[in-house]
Amino acid sequence: MAQISSNATAPTADSLPDNLNHLEFDDLPAFPENVPTAPLLRLSLKTLLAGDAGEEERLWKASRELGFFYLDLRGAGGPGSEDLGEVEVKDGGVDGDGLLKDADMLFKLGEQLFALPTEEKQKYDFKDQGSYFGYKGLGAGVLDAKGTKDRNEFYNVSKDDILGTGERLPAPALLEAEDSRVCLASYIRRSHAIVSLILGRLEKALGLPACTLRDLHRLQGESGDQVRWVRAPPSSTPQSAQQQTLGEHTDFGSITILFNRLGGLQVLPPDVNGVPQQWCYVKPLRGHCVVNLGDAMVKFSAGVLRSNIHRVVAPPGEQEQLTRMSLVYFARPEDKILLKALEGSKIIDQAKTTSGEDEEDISAKEWILRRALGRRTGGDWEKAGGTEGSRI
Ligand SMILES: O=C(O)CCC(=O)C(=O)O
Ligand SMILES: [Fe+2]
């Protein structure tokens, strides 16, 4: 593929606003029409998998300008489709419909998990052992520098634990069950395959030697990759309805694959001609995941790629009274990788020269620990910032 130009204009037909009502979740109250929605490009995994140059250009645009996009998973890859992938870039294991099925099963498992008694869930909070895996209770994280408590619960499951390549952490019997581990393993493999596909396309667009990014994110490599369930109960008072449930942040790692059903996720689009924009909802779409880039991609690319600020508020409109749950796969660089601008790309070299910023010597593991634990109650907020700079 020819080098993608940095000022490419992508077609707009598939970006919001668009009539996407056919992609709503029929079993849920409708996402309201009268709230601002974020202009995420809607990319197709099937088209990316086929090596389509136009779709790669849209991926490049989305990854630079907003750092967030929808990915339509339907009909992409799956058993018997290995031949579809571009020869130059191996896309083994991509199965969009399989991933959608895994996500459905994990939504059900998440509901059962959070229904466990609080004392039981609390046993798996490993913060005091210096780990970001396991449970985080309601209000155990902070939203801002003042220490305002969050309004959600998390459960984080380690990739290396599930794939048997790392420490096996204590977990509730529900997650220890063979069926649960098999489903988690499948979800992890399929999410990781999509992450690799995206990294492959981005390394090409950046002009990096083939596999540069993918080799920093090997499935079997020791890393902070995790599956996360996020659950937020409906707000009990009009006052709490105004509060965020998850504070403004950029993601710590490389690529995040997110499944949402109810609204509530918001992104802050970049300033337009120096004019700040308003927070916009990301409308959940059936058959799609939301993909966003994290801080590691900003560091590897010397700021060419974007890790955008986002937050979670109460679901909008008629969805407000429902419990909101989301399912996330966070792909992060392998633990020992230093988060520095990569060598071998003219685009990155040029960005490094222009920015002239000093790079901190920090590994992926240290970065993620500092960021994750710094956002827990009693953590060091100031030191736990990401690549958002003055954007918060
Ligand atoms: O729940 C969501 O929609 C987003 C969650 C999120 O941003 C995160 O866990 O980092
Ligand atoms: Fe996030």
From TrEMBL:
Pfam family, one: 2OG-FeII_Oxy
SUPFAM superfamilies the UniProt entry points to: Clavaminate synthase-like
TM region positions: none
GO biological process, one term: small molecule biosynthetic process
Keywords associated with the record: Iron, Metal-binding, Oxidoreductase
Annotated signal peptide: none
Residues annotated as domain Fe2OG dioxygenase: 223-333
InterPro entries (UniProt xref): DIOX_N, IPNS-like_FE2OG_OXY, IPNS-like_sf, Iron_ascorbate_oxido_reductase, Oxoglu/Fe-dep_dioxygenase_dom
GO molecular function: metal ion binding; oxidoreductase activity
Family: Belongs to the iron/ascorbate-dependent oxidoreductase family.
Name of the protein described by the UniProt record: Fe2OG dioxygenase domain-containing protein
UniProt source species: Acrodontium crateriforme
Upper classification of the organism: Eukaryota, Fungi, Dikarya, Ascomycota, Pezizomycotina
